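Researcher: Structure for this, please.
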Amino acid sequence: MTDFAGRLRLGVNIDHVATLRNARGGDLPDPVRAAHLAEEAGADGITAHLREDRRHIIDSDIDRLMDTLRVPLNFEMAATDEMQKIALRHKPHAVCIVPEKREERTTEGGLEVAREENKLAGYIAPLREAGCRVSIFIGADERQITAAHRIGAQVIELHTGAYCDAHAEGNFEIRDRELEMMREMSAYAHSLGLEVHAGHGLTYDTVTPVAAFPEVMELNIGHFLIGESVFRGLGPAIAEMRRLMDAARA
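Model: Predicted structure, token format:
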């Protein structure tokens, strides 16, 4: 069972440094340099999503991250044979299985686990055997969380996007309903022995209530921090997020 006394970890997603690089071509800005700056600023881990279409992070980024990171890499990936082979070659600290559609701008929802239990159980087994910690990116839904537990995932990451979108749109009734569901499902997942993470769309304005959930052990935040770094610098942007997370936990 997770120790609630542990410090809430911050994973910094560097995908959108690569998005900016790829918009023009060439090597700059370098997402691996961003990862190192995030380390120096106090990030507890780095998240990178190698999409099938390589729209932001590319294979050589993963190679360099694995070679040079001092903090754990959380390798986000779709449940494809290609991505499994890449993960088994690198053996990152953690792999997070996410849904992926070519036409989406960003990940739109949690993974459908309950309908794909047998397939996903077989898919993640070699990853666990290789020593990777397997996480499932999932909605705050009891059926999906139960299925994630059954297939042998060690971690779930709750999709916070609907909560953040409702807050941005000023729809506070939906926002509060989404927040309450995440609170309940965090407790439920913890009761099953799953470690609970959360992320997607979190900002300075939305992070505090989620960070206050005692069952949540890690937040993964990317797009907002990369955008905020344009104005503050990456180190100060991360430091402010870290401050808000620590204050919420205190």
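Researcher: Any notable elements?
Model: The chain has one domain: 9-249. Strands lie at 9-13, 45-49, 73-77, 94-97, 133-138, 155-159, 195-199, 216-221.
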